[in-house]
Amino acid sequence: MNISNQIEQILNTFAEDYINLNKDVLYLKYFSKSNGLVTNLIKQIPSLSKEDKKIYGQKINELSKDLENRISSLNVNEKTNLDETIKVTDIKRGGHLHPVTETIREMNNFFKFYGFSVYEGPEIETEEYNFRKLNLPENHPATDLQDSLYIKPGVLLRTHTSSIETRVLTNEQPPIRVIMPGTVFRNETPSATNASFFHQYQGVVVDKNITIKNLVSTLTEFHKHLFGPDVVIRFRYKYYPEVSPGLGTDIRCLFCKGEGCKVCKYRGYIEVLGSGMIHYNTLKMCGIDPNEYTGFAFGMGLSRLVMQRHKIDSIKKLYGGEISYQ
Amino acid sequence: MIVPIKWIKDYLTTHKSPKEIAKSFTEIGLMLDRPILGEVLDLEHRMDRADWLSILGCARDFAAFENIKFEEPELISTNLEKKNEIEIQVKSDKVNKFRTRIIRNIKVGESPKFIQERLIDYGLPVINNIVDITNFVMVEYGQPLHAQDIEKFQTKEIVLRDSEEGESIQTLDCTTTKLIEGTLVLSETKRPICIGGIVGGLRTGVTEDTKNIVLDGGNYDQASIRKASRELNIRNETVSRSEKFLSPELVDLAIIRATDLILEYAGGEAFENDDYENYHPTSRKMILTKERLEKISGEDFYFEKAAEIFDRLNYEIISKDEDKIHVKTPYFRTDIEVEDDLISDVLRIYGYSKITAEPINNFPPKNITPSILKVQDEITDYLVSIGLDEHITDPFLRYDGNTNRVLLFNSVNSDKDSLRISIKESLKNALEFSQKIGKENIQIFEIGNVYFKRNENLEEERRLGILLNYGNANSNSYEIRRVLNSLLSFLNIDYSLIHSKNGISIIKKEMELGFFAENYAEFYLDKILQLSTFKTQIISDFENLSKEDLTFTAHIDATNGEVIEYMRSLNPLVTKIDFIDEYQNENQRKVTVRFFTSYPAEMKKIREELINNTSKKFGVTFY
Fold first, then answer.
1. Which of A6, A134, A192, B55 is most buried per CB count within 10 Å?
2. DSSP A28-71
3. Hey, are the CB atoms on B222 and A141 less than 8 Å from each other?
4. For the whole model, what pTM was predicted?
5. How far is B391 from chain A (nearest CA, A)?
């Protein structure tokens, strides 16, 4: 192809490319050092005859300048993403973790670095592990704090993850440092906030010289991990049969900053978890010498926290498959 | 517990605002539960402290925390002339204490303003001076009391006994309650006049023209009261107190206080009457050691403060030395069980907000996380990475008569009275929801438990369920194969398929790993755990595999999986056997498999062994 045709062809293709290609691609197509269309033309100049050099040398230089000017005058963003026929959503997507799994993992990641293992226990439990070893004798008024689902006398679906705690305390030797995420079951008439099936998250530490100060430290750091470094934490006395002293742990309401609003039910604070030093009798009933070892335990409802985080208004949706992943 | 601020100020002086008072109550264990309305606090009560079901009990702890003076009401009518007008007979083992007094010539009318105001703030109706005073003292001391009109008695006796079959009573709210046999009742002329510790009867109730009354206070077995009130479905202020561990000693204080108020505001003359006692004192001698206090609190300064805090909480200090304090617990503290409960009181009244933080210094113990959780996480991550969504579904469903299914015998909801035996039973709800909102190419999974009743044993098993919908049966069956094949190859498990009652079973070494049918696959995670290795396989120079294809015509009744599984078990020198191809014509099918070995010198021997044994076993012909 002679040089004049080549120039003509470049002009033609440029007219089209100028509309369709973005600045970088356009520049490379015409001016890349190794294979640019204009660069290749310029490379041919030394090999032209004298007359051709006179005519086309100048033409090629003008062309080069002209195209370079037109390319550099292009706004970088102007030509990008103009083609709306490309369906970005067609790209095969990955799946999603359930919001509860996501939160459990986030919590586990915190405790992993404090030397905690993850522990499990059966969902079909005996009264011994679900109540008795937690310092809850038969007919104790605190049994009323929960409604249990029974399979046969003495055998029920665990009502809290505390049953995993009595399992780990019975089966393992101190030092013990474990977290216990798990599903729990209650005999409830379903509503937006109450369900017969939900998750709790439990933790326990037993070792020599464990004090209430260690509990306060661990839970303070945990709350900062969950709610950010500026979170304000409140510890107050709260009764649970399996601990003494017991502590309720609240965070100052993130919405009203403690003034009282609808979110915190005008309490100013939101209850996150229950905790305490493991009861003397619980340690003893699980076969650990309470005079040698001390420990603390904490437990929290996971589902409510997940619902808050994901703005899910009904617990039924969380466990009824009514989650629409984007 | 409802606490009108006006009422606690009868026993102490504070200038704090309702909000500040609520803050102190919250820190010591009575958390503000609802917005403060006027000057009334609604505090959360947690079952343990029976004394916190009284205004005096709440005020006492508040005063101890604030370190301010606290005064109980002065009791006047402690010594009265005894006239046993009404005989008390106790024929039930549910009675710990029962005390009565007779007050004659009273004038029933309006109760004084201060009582009315406090009852209204608390939320109880104002009726007449006698009823209001018994209610007032119940809330003040936490001990339910009961007044009856003596003139309405036909015999001069009160018998405390267990109810008999078929008995009923008309209660104060004018409803007739059928009694369950064995419920504690107070009776007269063999007819019940009151359900003990639960509710009074209408027949002997106080009315406008009542002149002479018998006032009673009782302490009963709390477990029986709880049980009976639930069976009768009666909840009231009396029940919520008498079902807790109240101290029997409260009966005396409350009955004296009520007598004082009745004599002052309704007039009349009071006499002591017959009573009954059968209980152990609730006060206990206990020791707090400095060593234990330091062990739990991590501080040495608390011991210095302990004696004073005990004093503020009405403990009696018997003796105190350098390293221990002997105390007698107050009669009303039925919650105290162990030394740590004393420590709890010291820390609580000193202030939980003053506890400082100290990180755990001990060396972390060894990791005891079970390996099934690791496998579970790996599988979850893998399935999510190839585009599946995770779900967690409620495992309850309506009982269908399947004898393998675990049935719950006390479920309040008949739609949820048994448990799933396959993940699919509840995961399908998630699929249906996705379809309902118009999703296409749905692929979801769940890892969770299924539950069985096998003979009389209850079992739970961890499983993985995968459910898809690609719009039609062909795509579904293709996609389910694709997903399970990807998953098993990720887990480094080679497998065979055989027909089974579940559809098609996935097997390895004669062990069933799971099954699939149509658009659903389920895996037994404990089996997967035994077989899976997450090690990335390295191709080694020394494992230069030789391979050879074998083709045979198969019988119709043996599946390829069965044949291949058998061939795999024949010679340990065979590294693996893969299914390659199948060709079906009329009534026989041709199957090609490929075997691999790292021992090329043994090729011939292996081939012969495979061919001979397999031909014999299945009657197939090799080419």
1. A134
2. HHHH-TTT-HHHHHHHHGGGS-HHHHHHHHHHHHHHHHHHHHHH
3. yes
4. 0.79
5. 5
